[in-house]
Design brief:
about 100 residues; mainly beta; four-stranded antiparallel sheet; three-stranded mixed sheet; elongated
Length: about 100
């Protein structure tokens, strides 16, 4: 959360949206990361994908995200790919890499 001011001896109610779930189906061992895309279009690193797990389930807060990855057998960054996706409260988003 940004732009929140907390003052001493005051009570605050902060509502946090329910997460959604990202289900990743990875065809081959891959290296990569998941990034949150903020309102300014900036990327914030969140999570490194497990290169040996071909099926992964990750709970994320609602919003826009990007996964940047490449198959582990390729060593050059030129083989990297990006997939953008959105997470919705209480919904599952499925991606196949």
């Amino acid at each position: 959360m940004e732009d929140v001011t907390i003052k001493q001896d005051e009570n605050y109610l902060i509502e946090i949206a329910h997460p959604g779930t990202l289900e990743l189906a990875i065809g081959k061992a891959s290296v990569g990361s998941i990034f949150k895309i903020n309102d300014k279009g900036e990327y914030e690193w969140l999570y490194s994908i497990d290169e040996m797990e071909l099926n992964q389930s990750i709970d994320l807060q609602p919003g826009n995200y990007s996964i940047m990855y490449r198959y582990k057998m390729y060593k050059k960054t030129g083989y990297s790919q990006e997939l953008k996706f959105a997470i919705t409260t209480k919904k599952t988003t499925k991606l196949k890499l």
